[in-house]
Automatic annotation (TrEMBL):
<dbReference type="Pfam" id="PF03462">
    <property type="entry name" value="PCRF"/>
</dbReference>
<feature type="domain" description="Peptide chain release factor">
    <location>
        <begin position="23"/>
        <end position="132"/>
    </location>
</feature>
<protein>
    <recommendedName>
        <fullName>Peptide chain release factor domain-containing protein</fullName>
    </recommendedName>
</protein>
<dbReference type="InterPro" id="IPR005139">
    <property type="entry name" value="PCRF"/>
</dbReference>
<dbReference type="InterPro" id="IPR045853">
    <property type="entry name" value="Pep_chain_release_fac_I_sf"/>
</dbReference>
<dbReference type="GO" id="GO:0006415">
    <property type="term" value="P:translational termination"/>
</dbReference>
């Protein structure tokens, strides 16, 4: 908690400093100083994004890997096809995020799709991303 408060204090003072420097730079028409202010504001934005990430994924289990279980349920062929669509969607999502997704169990449907599947998704904050 102390680290979060410290980060917020740094960001607050950084914004005040950037505002003051921007006003002085505008009066003196100093483009180099304006560019420096823009770089500082970008650095503060990156700090804010990191802080938001820590807030979103503050759960005890969030940093861990995850198992994803998909079951077709009732509905016959259409439900099995939909389960297959979900499986492909999650596999692509995991790949796009840079996670390692391994199909641990797969039960093929009678006509199309799947009856069920279990996927092990490995990666930093995989559980947190799937939980949100």
């Amino acid at each position: 908690m102390a680290q979060i408060v410290e980060t917020l204090d740094e960001m607050s003072s950084g914004l005040v400093d950037a505002k003051d420097l921007l006003l002085m730079s505008a009066e003196e028409e100093d483009q180099a100083a304006v560019d420096d202010v823009a770089a500082e504001v970008e650095r503060l934005r990156a700090s804010l994004e990191k802080l938001e990430f820590r807030r979103m994924f503050s759960g005890e289990m969030d940093p861990n890997n995850a198992y994803l279980d998909i079951q077709a349920g009732s509905g016959g062929t259409e439900a099995q096809d939909w389960a297959n669509i979900l499986l492909r969607m999650y596999l692509r999502w995991a790949d796009k995020r840079g996670f390692d997704a391994t199909i641990m169990e797969l039960s093929a449907g009678e006509v199309a799709g799947i009856k069920g599947a279990t996927v092990h998704i490995k990666g930093e904050y995989a559980f947190g991303w799937l939980r949100t």
